[in-house]
């Protein structure tokens, strides 16, 4: 990656609605990944591990990206690298910089940096690598031209197999595919820990009966569904934001599928589908809260906290989640790597100004981020304190949701198996 190129394209960011403060560091200097001794021994860093069982620290949201230049089968839409699409190109360059890809192969460099970051963390810390399926049309055919990037299941599986002490993997299977159920069974047999969907981008409707066979297979395999809810902004081409409405998850929940809602649905608004197709518009996080507060979803519905500490989710989303101590045993941590390494997305100074962080933590966190974005993400979330509340240690022990005995999508909702899904009225069903 050429820094001059990145700087030039970054000038276009204001066009994309990103306000850049002049003092903010724009480019990741990609130091480390080892921390210099004073930082590694800093009390802020050491305190982050207190009270945590490190063998449970699975990061449930880590993107595995590649271009296929190393034979991975991963793919990035050429528009992401084309001068004809300056905003997409800018985004691509930020991701490449975040992953510290300066020269050499992208497939190889991406996994090498990620592995390097993890190796500087305590034993037991693992990244759950996300595969990423193509957008599929209504007929269930892949639509590469509408897809921003693709990471095949077999690539995530193979990277995870090579370093089982540091990586787990999460499959991505579009439910409209003709071979969806077979692909899911294969993924489960190959050690996948969950399935990831990004409905606003991949264009599946979680509230559609077309997903029912897939939901039955999720239950049978015991795999949870990690599903992005709320507005999607990190991936260009999110054409169906309505598909990120948390209430569309009533259908899989009623069928007893374990659901993990990425980012706790913390961005954007959605129709209150419980009130019908023309119900009032409410913040997605409120719709998510409604599902969380329904007692029958205990043990079945979880929230994942990646991106809550990004600048665009400060305020209500972060405060709500931190204050809901009664939810914390149902929350899990994820970093959304490489986003913690995309410099303009975070501002620890602003977090301190809002009273979320001790101002004394700011220089330590800034420094940490320049060396190791995964350490930064963990320490940052451990330091957040809002009017006396912070994330309970159990939030960080995500392993419990993906690796507990008897855990997984096979768990039944209170409705039980014999009861057919009640068919909550969701448009498109
Ligand atoms: Zn993500």
Secondary structure topology:
Elements: H1 3-10, H2 37-40, H3 43-47, E1 58-63, E2 75-76, H4 86-98, H5 106-119, E3 126-130, E4 149-150, H6 153-162, E5 167-170, H7 180-189, E6 195-197, H8 199-202, H9 212-221, E7 225-228, H10 250-254, E8 259-262, E9 269-271, E10 281-283, H11 284-292, E11 301-304, H12 316-323, E12 331-332, H13 348-353, H14 362-371, H15 373-383, H16 399-402
Parallel strand pairs: 1-3, 3-5, 6-7, 7-8, 8-11, 11-12
Antiparallel strand pairs: 2-4, 9-10
Helix pairs in contact: 1-4, 7-9, 14-15
Spatial ordering of strands, largest sheet: 6-7-8-11-12
The Cα radius of gyration reads 20 Å
Approximate helicity band: 25-40%
Element-level helix/strand string: HHHEEHHEEHEHEHHEHEEEHEHEHHHH
Task: List the uncertain runs.
Answer: 8-23, 406-429
What small-molecule ligands were found? zinc ion
Oligomer: single chain
Mean pLDDT: 88
Structural class: alpha/beta
β-strand percent reads: 5-15%
- Termini separation: 46 Å
Q: What is the molecular shape? A: globular
Q: Report the biggest beta sheet as strand number plus sense, adding barrel if it closes.
A: 5 strands, parallel
Number of DSSP strand runs: 12
